[in-house]
Write a structure and sequence with these properties.
Layout lengths: L1 H25 L10 E2 L3 E2 L5 H23 L5 H19 L15 H27 L1
Antiparallel strand pairs: 1-2
Helix pairs in contact: 1-2, 1-4, 2-3, 3-4
């Protein structure tokens, strides 16, 4: 069962990586839906093509960690620690920065914050929990 979850995690991370590569190549149609926004100051960050591509590469490397759990291209205890750290990162993302992202955000009146509350943070929380559970039980 945990192999199936590892496959689903790697597919999800690969899809997210592809989305970031798409944004790097073709741009983001409505940036206010994917970037935290302060209603009085505008976008909190302004990601460029390079940073979108870098996030895509990182997500692809994360996906490789979980593909490797099944295919065993590389062996080593460090991969288990890496997978555990990835799970923690997604949980931290879900909890947030206490201002713009995550369950603890204070600024809640933007397109991004509504989507973050409804989709992005719960997704990161579920993904983080699944990763940690797969690490503990596989």
């Amino acid at each position: 069962m945990w192999d199936v979850i590892a496959i689903l995690i790697s597919i999800t991370l690969t899809f997210l990586s592809g989305l970031h590569f798409y944004w790097a190549l073709f741009g983001i149609i409505d940036i206010s839906t994917v970037v935290p926004t302060n209603p009085t100051k505008g976008h909190v960050i302004s990601p460029g093509k390079g940073s979108s591509a870098m996030v895509g590469v990182i997500l692809l490397l994360f996906a490789f960690v979980f593909i490797n759990k099944i295919a065993m291209f590389i062996e080593g205890k460090w991969l288990n620690y890496t997978a555990f750290a990835i799970g923690i990162l997604f949980l931290i993302r879900a909890i947030g920065d206490f201002k713009y992202v995550g369950f603890t955000k204070k600024i809640k009146n933007s397109k991004f914050s509504r989507l973050d509350t409804r989709y992005y943070s719960p997704f990161c929380f579920i993904l983080g929990i699944l990763i940690l559970l797969s690490e503990f039980f596989s």
